[in-house]
Amino acid sequence: CLMIERLSPGLSAFWGSVMLVFILLTQRPLLSLLRKDGGHEHGTFTDGVVDLREGLIAGARNMIGIGIATAAAGIIVGAVSQTGVGLVLADLVELLSMGNLLLMLLLTAFLSLISAWACRPPPTTSSCPACWRR
Question: Which residues form the TRAP C4-dicarboxylate transport system permease DctM subunit domain (predicted)?
Fold first, then answer.
């Protein structure tokens, strides 16, 4: 909805987060208000605050591993781009493939395997930092 109104992605994410906090804080009180049969104890506003606090703590703990993996990938990608190794390898693949796309694909796969062997434990350097957690 916010992107349809041509707001920036950052502003859309901000308002999405604000609405999520609002829903977390008001979900339990609204359930207890709307279900007046007495058999359901859904909680109060303070239970929503506790849920929000626990969710923020769990999210921060889960992001530590992803942040470290992303930083490591950034270091490797930065080193490849700053030294010019990426351009040299691209020129080498283009030269050896002689314009053949299938051969270019195979050479790229081979070079990816070789670069992955040098970067253990994550087998593919910057493909999926979220998958690096074990």
Answer: 51-116
